[in-house]
User: Which sequence fits this backbone?
C-alpha cells in the first residue's frame, strides 16, 4: 500500500508493515500481518473486526503493552509524531505512554485497581508525567472528573472502584487517560461491557472530548454500528490483515469486501454477542489453522478460482478506499 | 487409554513432575511387592549385626535390633501408601460429604460448618495428639485421626465449590426436570468436583506423610513395631552421629515421596478448572 | 523519655549479657534432665529424677555411704533398747531449716508421722511402729511392735523416704504432694524457683550446717560449691547429648548405651557410670487371669526367655549390662545366686513342654509395655518373639507410661507388664516385696518368709532369708528380672569432684567447675 | 470496625463453649491417671486412689466440667496437678518462649518468603523461578524434626556457632542475647511455612499480573518496579494475608515438634508433656488458650484483609 497521507505535520500515527506473532509450542504463528495504517491529528480511526482478528493486539503494540503477553513484534515500524516507537528505549517509551498517548480498555470493571481510591489512581497518572504537588494533582483530578461528567466529582473522588457503576468507571478510565493531555487516545472496545444507553453516552463523551482537545482517536470495536456513528475513517480487519479501509461514508456507500458486507448485515441487536453473527456462515478460523490464499475464502459466498491459493493484494477503488479481494463487490446501484 | 492421554497432556513438558510421578510409581511397586523384593523379614532381628553400616548384605545398614533397614524401608513404603490413601479416603468422604451437604442444604449446613469451625480452631497436630492418646496407637486410628484433621479443610473447600456450582444453569435444569436432592448432589454436582477433589487428594496424601511422621516422632503415631519411615526415624534419632544411615535413608524416602506427591499435585492443579484452582492451597 | 532510657538499658544489658554469658554460667550447674520432675516432695514421690534434685534440699536422719551402709545425717547417734523394740535417735544440734528455724525433734516426729501414714515407703516401717514421740528437744523415740531389721535402711533411703520438713509444713499435709513454696529442708541447697517447663533451680543455702567427716558416698561433709543448681528438662535424648557437646549443659542424664563408646572416647565429654544398676522387671499377674496361681505356667514363661539378646538390643555395649540373676548386683552384700540358675534359660522346647503340662492351650497373654522407655519396649519385643517361638500367644499391648500405670492397677487388664526398678540398698525396698504393688504377690510362702525377713535384725540371718526369698521368686515367678543395666550420665570435663561413679542419684555438693 | 470486632468476638462464645466441652471430654477420656504419674512407679493402686480422691478427680465428669467451666469464666484455669501452681502461671511462662519463637519465625517467613516469592514471580519460567519454586516445594516436604536434628548437628555440635537447645528467660538474662537460642528453632519452624509463602506470593503475583488493572497501570507509563510494587505486590498481598491465618495454625502444630526437638520451654512442648503426664488442667488450659488465640488471629486476619481489600465489607 502506498501511503495516501503525506502531510507529516498532522500525521500523528503511521504504522508500516506491522507484523505480530505469537510464540506457541508449534512455533511462531502470525497474528497480525503486514499492517499499515495511519491516523492524523483530530481524526477518528475505527478498526472493526470479529474478536481474534488482531485489532486489540495492534492497539497493545502501539501502546507498548505487549510485554507480558506471548505476542511479539516481528517486523514493521510504528511512527508516532515522526518517531519510530519500536526503536525507543523502554524509558522513552514510558514517557510517551499515558502522556502523549493513552488508552482505555474494554473492561471498566477490572481495569481499575480495586484497592486504590479512584482519585489516587488518577493522581498517580497525572504526577507520573507532570511533577506537581498532590494537592494540585488532586485539583486536576477533580477537573478531569468534571470533564468526563462524573456527577458529584468531589464526592466521588475518594470512592473505590467497586462503589461505582460500570459507566462511571469507564468515565474514570477516560479521565485517567486524559490526565496527560494525550495527542492520541486508543479506545479498545470502550463500550462493549456497558448497557446500551450508557454506551451511547460514553461514545458521545469521547467524540466531544476529541472535538475539545483535537486529539486523534483510534476506536476499536467489533461493532460496525458503534464505529459508523463515531469514526471519520474505518479499517476492517480479518484474521490479522486489513481487508478494507475507507472513509466512513465511502465505506458504507460503496463497500467492496464481502466480509465488510457481512459485518454490516449482521449489526447485532444491542445485547447480542459477536459470536452469534448470523450473516456470516462459519466461524473465525483459529490461529493454528493454516489457510492459504484469502483467509476469508472458506466463509465467503463469492469465493472463486484463486481465492484459496493467492493472497489478494490491497487494491485502490478510490483515492482513500482500498480493499483486498479477488472478486470485490460491485458498487450498489 | 484416555487416562494415559490425559496424563500425557498434564505432565507434558514438566520433567520434574514426571520424575515425581515415576518415583511414586516406584514406591507403589515397592509397597506391592515388598514381600518378594525384601531380602529380609522386616521384623527379624539379630543382635550380632546390629548397627552395621550399609553394605552389600544390608543396603541401608541395620538398626539397633539388627533389622535390615532396606527391608524395613520397603515395608515402610506400604505404610506410606496405606496412610496416604487411608487419610485421603477419610478426609474426602467425611469432609466431602460435610462440605457438599452443607452447601446444598443451607440450614443444616450452617450447623455443620460451625462444627467444622470448632474443629478447625484446634491446631491440626494438637487435635491429632489428643485423639491419638485417647484412642490407642494403631494404623487404623492414625489414618482416622489424620483423615479427620484434613476433613475439616476439605469440608471448607468443597463447601465453597458446591456453592459455586449450585448457582449454575445445569443444576437449575436438573432441579426443573424433577431430579431428587441425592441425584443432584451426586449425579450432577459431584462429577464436576472430581478433578479438584483429585488435586486435593494428592496434597492430603503428601501432608499425611508428614503428619504421620510427626506423630511417630512424638511417639503417638503408628504402633512402634510397624515398620514405617516415621517410626524408623523416630527410633533412630539418637543415632544421628553413631549410625547416620538410620536417619538419612528413611528421611530421604519421606522427603522424596512428599516432594513427588506435591509436584504431581501441582501439575494436576494447573490442569483443572481455573474456577477451583485457587480454592486448593496445597504447597 | 522514660521509655527511651528504658530501651537503652535493656540494649546495654543485652550486650553485656551476651559478652558475659560464660561468666553468668560459671556459678551455676546446668543439668539436663530426662523431663520435668513430678513434685519434689520426697515423702510421697518415688521418681528418681525428683530425688536427684530434692536430695540437695531435703535430708533424712540417715544416708548411705559409698558401700551402701546407712550413716547418720541429721541424726547424731542412736541406740536400740528393749531387744531392738525401741529405737532412740539423737539429733544433731544447730541444724537450721531453710526458713531459718532450728530443727528439733518436733519437726522430726511430724515428718516421720506424715511419711508413715502417707509416704510411699512409709508403711514398710510404720506397719511395725507402735508409737513415735519426741523424748527431748533433740531426741526421738520409736517403739516397734517387734524388732525390725531394715529400719535404718528405710530411714536412710530418701527416695519416697522420710525427708525432714519443718513441723509447720507437715501440718495438714496428706497424700497430696506439698507445694513448692513449702519446699523447706535442711540441705546444702535450698529451693530457688520452679519455672514449669523451663527449670527447677536450687540455690546455695548459706547457713548450711554440714555433718562432719570425710565425704564418703552421701555421708560426711557436704559443701555447696555452686551458687545454683539448675535442672533443665530436656526430654529428647539426642538434644541432651548434643546440648552437652555444644556446651549448653554441664551434666546430662540417662544417655543411650549405644552412644557410650563414642562419648567415652571423646575428650569433650566425661562419662559417669551409675554404681547401682537398674533392672527391668516383667511382673506377672498373681491376682487374676491365666497366670494366677499357675506357677508351672509362670515357670514355663520364665524358661522360654533368654535375657542376653534383649540386653544386647536394648542396651548395647557389654560394659553396660550384666545378665545377672541376683536381684542385688555382684559385690553387694545382698548378692546371692540362689535360684538364679533359672534366670535365663532361653529353652523354647522345654518351655513348650512345661506350658503343656501346666495346661496352657494358647490362651492370649496380655503383655503391657510402654514406649516412653525405649529399653522397656526393645526388651519386650525380644521377649515376645522368644515367647512366641515357645508357643505362647502373646498379645503385646503398647501404651504410654501414664496409661500403663493406670491399667496395671486393674487386675483384669493384663497378665504381664514391663517396668524397671532402681537400685535399692535393701531388698525390702524392691517393689515385688510389696503385697499391694500390681502383681499382688501374696502367696502364704512369701508372706511367711517376708515376715521373718523383716523381723530379723541379724545381718547374716537376713542375708540367708533373702536368698530363700530370691529362690522363691524364681520358683513362683511373681516377676522376672531382665538383667542389670548400668546407666550412665555424661558431664563436661570441667566439672571437678564428680568421682568415678554415681552412687544412686548424682549429687553436686563437693562438686565445682 | 471496632463494632465488627466486638460482634465477631461475641459470636466466638458458642464456638468456644463447644470447644471447651470437646477439649474437656477428649482430655478426660484419655486413659491413665495423673495421680499415678505423680506418685511414680512404686506407688500402689491404693495410694493412687487416695491421691485421686484428694485431687477431686473421682467426681463425675459433668461436675468436674461445670466446676472447671465456672472457674474458667472467672479467668481461673485451675491448678496444675503436676506443678501445683495455677495453670495461668504455667502457660504464661511458656508463652514467652512460644511467642518469641512465633515472632522470629514470622520474621524468617517474611524475609525469606516474600522476596523470594517476588523474585520467582518476576523471573517466571526461567531457571531462577524453577530453582526457587522447586526448592520451596522441597523444603515444604521435609519433616520438621528431621531438619531440626540436622541443623543442631551442623550449627551447634559441629560448628559450635549457635546453642543447641533450651531457652533461658529474658527475666533471667535480662537481654535479647537469648534470641540466639531461637535462631535455629525459628528457622526450622519457618522453613516449610516460608516455602508455602514463597509459592503463594509467586502464584498471587502471577495472578495479579494477569489482571487488567495492571495493564492500566503500565499504560500510565509507570516504571516496571512501580507497577510491581504499587499494583502487583500490593494486590497480591491480599491473598498472602489470608494465608497468614493458616500459617499460624500450622505454626502452632509444628511448634509442638520443634519445641520438643530443641527442648524449648514453650507451650507446644508443655502440651505434649502434659498429655504424657495427664495434667488435665494444663492440657485444657493450653488448648483453650490456643483456640482463643487462633480465633483472635483469624479475626485480625479478617480485619487486615478488609483493610487490604476495600471490596471486602465487614458485616
Assistant:
Amino acid at each position: 500500500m502506498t501511503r495516501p497521507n503525506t502531510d507529516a505535520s498532522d500525521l500523528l500515527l503511521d504504522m508500516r508493515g506491522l507484523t505480530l506473532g505469537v510464540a506457541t509450542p508449534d512455533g511462531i504463528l502470525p497474528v497480525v500481518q503486514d499492517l499499515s495504517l495511519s491516523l492524523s491529528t483530530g481524526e477518528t480511526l475505527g478498526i472493526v473486526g470479529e474478536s481474534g482478528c488482531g485489532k486489540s493486539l495492534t492497539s497493545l503494540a502501539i501502546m507498548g503493552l505487549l510485554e507480558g503477553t506471548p505476542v511479539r513484534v516481528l517486523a514493521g515500524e510504528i511512527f508516532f509524531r515522526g518517531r519510530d516507537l519500536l526503536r525507543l528505549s523502554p524509558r522513552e517509551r514510558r514517557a510517551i505512554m499515558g502522556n502523549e498517548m493513552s488508552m482505555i480498555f474494554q473492561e471498566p470493571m477490572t481495569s481499575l485497581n480495586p484497592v486504590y481510591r479512584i482519585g489516587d489512581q488518577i493522581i498517580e497518572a497525572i504526577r507520573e508525567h507532570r511533577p506537581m504537588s498532590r494537592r494540585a494533582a488532586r485539583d486536576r483530578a477533580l477537573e478531569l472528573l468534571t470533564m468526563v461528567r462524573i456527577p458529584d466529582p468531589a464526592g466521588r473522588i475518594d470512592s473505590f472502584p467497586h462503589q461505582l457503576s460500570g459507566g462511571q468507571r469507564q468515565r474514570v478510565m477516560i479521565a485517567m487517560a486524559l490526565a496527560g493531555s494525550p495527542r492520541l487516545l486508543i479506545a479498545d472496545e470502550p463500550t462493549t461491557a456497558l448497557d446500551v444507553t450508557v454506551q451511547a453516552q460514553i461514545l458521545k463523551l469521547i467524540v466531544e472530548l476529541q472535538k475539545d482537545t483535537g486529539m486523534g482517536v483510534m476506536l476499536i470495536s467489533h461493532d460496525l454500528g458503534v464505529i459508523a456513528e463515531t469514526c471519520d475513517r474505518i479499517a476492517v480487519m480479518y484474521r490479522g490483515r486489513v481487508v478494507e479501509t475507507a472513509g466512513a461514508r465511502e465505506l458504507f456507500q460503496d463497500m467492496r469486501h464481502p466480509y465488510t458486507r457481512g459485518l454490516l448485515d449482521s449489526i447485532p441487536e444491542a445485547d447480542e454477542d459477536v459470536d452469534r453473527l448470523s450473516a456470516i456462515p462459519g466461524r473465525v478460523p483459529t490461529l493454528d489453522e493454516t489457510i492459504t490464499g484469502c483467509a476469508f475464502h472458506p466463509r465467503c459466498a463469492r469465493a472463486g478460482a484463486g481465492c484459496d491459493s493467492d493472497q489478494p493484494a490491497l487494491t485502490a477503488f478510490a483515492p482513500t478506499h482500498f480493499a483486498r479481494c479477488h472478486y470485490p463487490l460491485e458498487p450498489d446501484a | 487409554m484416555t487416562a494415559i492421554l490425559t496424563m500425557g497432556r498434564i505432565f507434558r513438558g514438566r520433567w520434574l513432575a514426571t520424575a515425581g510421578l515415576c518415583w511414586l510409581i516406584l514406591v507403589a511397586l515397592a509397597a506391592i511387592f515388598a514381600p518378594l523384593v525384601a531380602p529380609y523379614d522386616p521384623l527379624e532381628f539379630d543382635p550380632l549385626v546390629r548397627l552395621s553400616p550399609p553394605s552389600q548384605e544390608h543396603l541401608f545398614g541395620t538398626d539397633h535390633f539388627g533389622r535390615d533397614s532396606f527391608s524395613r524401608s520397603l515395608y515402610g513404603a506400604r505404610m506410606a501408601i496405606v496412610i496416604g490413601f487411608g487419610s485421603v479416603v477419610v478426609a474426602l468422604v467425611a469432609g466431602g460429604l460435610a462440605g457438599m451437604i452443607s452447601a446444598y442444604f443451607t440450614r443444616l449446613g450452617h450447623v455443620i460448618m460451625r462444627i467444622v469451625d470448632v474443629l478447625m480452631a484446634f491446631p491440626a497436630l494438637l487435635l491429632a495428639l489428643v485423639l491419638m492418646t485417647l484412642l490407642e496407637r494403631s494404623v487404623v486410628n492414625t489414618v482416622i485421626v489424620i483423615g479427620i484433621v484434613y476433613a475439616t479443610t476439605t469440608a471448607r473447600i468443597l463447601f465453597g465449590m458446591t456453592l459455586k456450582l449450585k448457582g449454575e444453569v445445569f443444576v437449575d435444569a436438573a432441579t426443573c426436570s424433577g431430579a431428587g436432592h441425592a441425584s443432584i448432589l451426586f449425579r450432577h454436582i459431584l462429577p464436576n468436583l472430581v478433578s479438584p477433589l483429585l488435586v486435593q487428594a494428592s496434597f492430603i496424601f503428601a501432608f499425611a506423610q508428614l503428619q504421620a511422621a510427626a506423630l511417630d516422632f512424638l511417639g503417638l503415631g503408628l504402633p512402634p513395631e510397624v515398620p514405617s519411615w516415621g517410626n524408623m526415624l523416630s527410633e533412630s534419632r539418637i543415632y544421628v552421629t553413631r549410625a547416620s544411615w538410620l536417619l538419612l535413608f528413611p528421611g530421604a524416602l519421606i522427603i522424596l515421596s512428599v516432594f513427588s506427591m506435591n509436584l504431581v499435585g501441582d501439575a494436576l492443579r494447573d490442569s483443572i478448572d481455573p474456577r477451583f484452582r485457587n480454592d486448593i492451597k496445597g504447597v | 523519655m522514660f521509655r527511651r532510657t528504658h530501651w537503652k538499658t535493656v540494649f546495654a544489658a543485652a550486650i553485656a549479657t551476651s559478652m558475659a554469658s560464660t561468666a553468668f554460667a560459671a556459678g551455676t550447674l546446668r543439668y539436663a534432665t530426662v523431663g520435668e520432675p513430678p513434685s519434689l516432695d520426697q515423702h510421697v514421690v518415688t521418681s528418681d529424677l525428683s530425688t536427684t534434685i530434692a536430695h540437695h534440699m531435703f535430708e533424712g536422719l540417715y544416708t548411705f555411704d559409698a558401700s551402701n551402709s546407712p550413716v547418720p545425717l541429721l541424726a547424731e547417734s542412736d541406740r536400740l533398747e528393749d531387744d531392738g523394740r525401741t529405737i532412740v535417735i539423737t539429733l544433731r544440734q544447730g541444724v537450721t531449716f531453710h526458713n531459718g528455724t532450728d530443727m528439733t525433734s518436733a519437726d522430726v516426729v511430724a515428718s516421720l508421722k506424715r511419711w508413715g501414714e502417707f509416704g510411699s515407703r512409709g508403711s514398710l516401717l510404720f506397719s511395725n511402729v507402735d508409737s513415735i514421740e519426741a523424748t527431748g528437744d533433740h531426741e526421738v523415740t520409736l517403739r516397734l511392735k517387734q524388732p525390725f531389721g531394715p529400719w535404718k535402711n528405710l530411714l536412710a533411703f530418701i527416695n519416697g523416704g522420710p525427708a525432714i520438713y519443718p513441723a509447720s509444713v507437715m501440718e495438714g499435709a496428706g497424700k497430696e504432694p506439698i507445694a513448692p513454696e513449702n519446699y523447706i529442708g535442711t540441705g546444702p541447697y535450698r529451693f530457688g524457683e520452679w519455672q514449669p517447663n523451663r527449670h527447677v533451680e536450687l540455690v546455695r543455702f548459706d547457713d548450711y550446717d554440714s555433718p562432719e567427716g570425710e565425704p564418703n558416698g552421701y555421708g560426711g561433709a557436704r559443701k555447696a560449691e555452686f551458687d545454683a543448681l539448675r535442672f533443665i528438662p530436656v526430654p529428647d535424648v539426642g538434644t541432651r547429648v548434643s546440648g552437652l557437646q555444644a556446651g549448653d549443659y554441664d551434666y546430662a542424664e540417662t544417655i543411650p548405651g549405644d552412644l557410650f563408646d563414642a562419648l567415652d572416647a571423646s575428650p569433650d565429654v566425661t562419662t559417669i557410670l551409675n554404681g547401682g544398676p537398674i533392672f527391668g522387671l516383667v511382673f506377672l499377674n498373681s491376682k487374676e487371669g491365666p497366670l494366677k496361681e499357675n506357677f508351672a505356667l509362670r515357670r514355663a514363661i520364665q524358661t522360654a526367655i533368654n535375657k542376653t539378646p534383649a540386653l544386647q538390643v536394648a542396651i548395647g555395649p557389654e560394659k553396660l549390662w550384666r545378665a545377672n540373676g541376683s536381684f542385688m548386683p555382684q559385690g553387694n552384700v545382698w548378692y546371692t545366686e540362689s535360684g538364679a540358675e533359672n534366670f535365663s534359660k532361653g529353652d523354647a522346647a522345654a518351655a513348650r513342654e512345661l506350658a503343656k503340662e501346666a495346661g496352657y492351650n494358647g490362651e492370649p497373654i496380655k503383655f503391657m509395655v510402654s514406649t516412653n522407655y525405649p529399653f522397656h519396649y526393645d526388651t519386650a519385643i525380644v521377649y515376645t518373639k522368644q515367647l512366641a517361638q515357645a508357643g505362647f500367644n502373646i498379645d503385646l499391648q503398647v501404651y504410654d507410661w501414664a496409661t500403663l500405670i493406670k491399667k496395671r492397677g486393674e487386675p483384669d487388664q493384663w497378665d504381664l507388664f514391663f517396668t524397671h526398678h532402681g537400685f535399692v540398698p535393701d531388698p525390702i525396698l524392691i517393689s515385688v516385696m510389696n503385697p499391694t504393688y500390681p502383681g499382688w504377690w501374696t502367696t502364704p510362702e512369701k508372706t511367711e518368709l517376708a515376715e521373718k525377713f523383716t523381723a530379723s535384725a541379724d545381718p547374716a540371718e537376713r542375708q540367708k532369708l533373702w536368698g530363700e526369698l530370691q529362690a522363691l521368686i524364681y520358683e513362683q515367678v511373681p516377676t522376672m528380672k531382665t538383667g542389670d543395666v548400668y546407666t550412665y550420665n555424661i558431664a563436661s570435663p570441667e566439672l571437678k569432684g564428680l568421682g568415678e561413679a554415681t552412687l544412686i542419684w548424682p549429687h553436686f555438693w563437693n562438686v565445682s567447675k | 470496625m471496632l463494632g465488627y470486632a466486638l460482634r465477631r468476638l461475641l459470636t466466638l462464645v458458642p464456638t468456644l463453649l463447644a470447644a471447651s466441652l470437646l477439649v474437656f471430654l477428649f482430655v478426660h477420656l484419655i486413659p491413665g491417671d495423673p495421680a499415678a504419674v505423680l506418685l511414680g512407679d512404686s506407688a500402689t493402686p491404693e495410694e493412687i486412689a487416695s491421691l485421686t480422691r484428694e485431687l477431686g478427680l473421682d467426681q463425675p465428669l459433668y461436675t468436674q466440667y461445670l466446676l472447671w467451666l465456672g472457674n474458667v469464666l472467672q479467668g481461673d484455669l485451675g491448678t496444675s496437678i503436676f506443678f501445683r501452681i495455677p495453670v495461668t502461671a504455667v502457660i504464661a511462662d511458656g508463652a514467652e518462649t512460644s511467642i518469641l519463637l512465633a515472632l522470629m519465625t514470622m520474621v524468617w517467613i517474611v524475609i525469606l518468603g516474600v522476596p523470594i516469592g517476588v523474585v520467582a514471580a518476576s523471573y517466571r519460567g526461567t531457571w531462577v523461578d524453577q530453582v526457587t519454586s522447586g526448592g520451596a516445594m522441597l523444603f515444604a516436604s521435609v519433616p520438621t524434626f528431621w531438619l531440626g536434628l540436622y541443623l543442631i548437628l551442623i550449627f551447634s555440635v559441629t560448628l559450635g556457632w549457635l546453642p543447641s537447645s533450651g531457652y533461658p528467660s529474658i527475666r533471667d538474662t535480662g537481654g535479647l542475647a537469648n534470641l540466639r537460642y531461637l535462631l535455629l528453632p525459628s528457622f526450622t519452624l519457618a522453613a516449610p511455612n516460608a516455602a508455602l509463602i514463597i509459592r503463594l506470593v509467586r502464584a498471587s503475583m502471577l495472578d495479579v499480573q494477569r489482571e487488567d488493572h495492571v495493564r492500566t497501570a503500565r499504560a500510565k507509563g509507570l516504571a516496571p518496579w512501580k507497577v510491581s510494587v504499587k499494583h502487583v505486590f500490593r494486590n497480591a498481598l491480599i491473598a498472602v494475608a489470608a494465608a497468614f491465618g493458616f500459617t499460624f495454625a500450622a505454626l502452632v502444630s509444628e511448634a509442638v515438634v520443634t519445641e520438643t526437638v530443641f527442648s524449648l520451654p514453650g507451650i507446644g512442648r508443655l502440651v505434649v508433656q502434659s498429655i504424657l503426664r495427664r495434667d488435665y488442667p494444663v492440657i485444657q488450659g493450653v488448648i483453650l488458650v490456643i483456640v482463643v488465640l487462633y480465633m483472635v488471629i483469624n479475626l485480625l486476619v479478617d480485619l487486615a484483609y478488609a483493610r487490604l481489600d476495600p471490596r471486602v465489607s465487614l458485616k
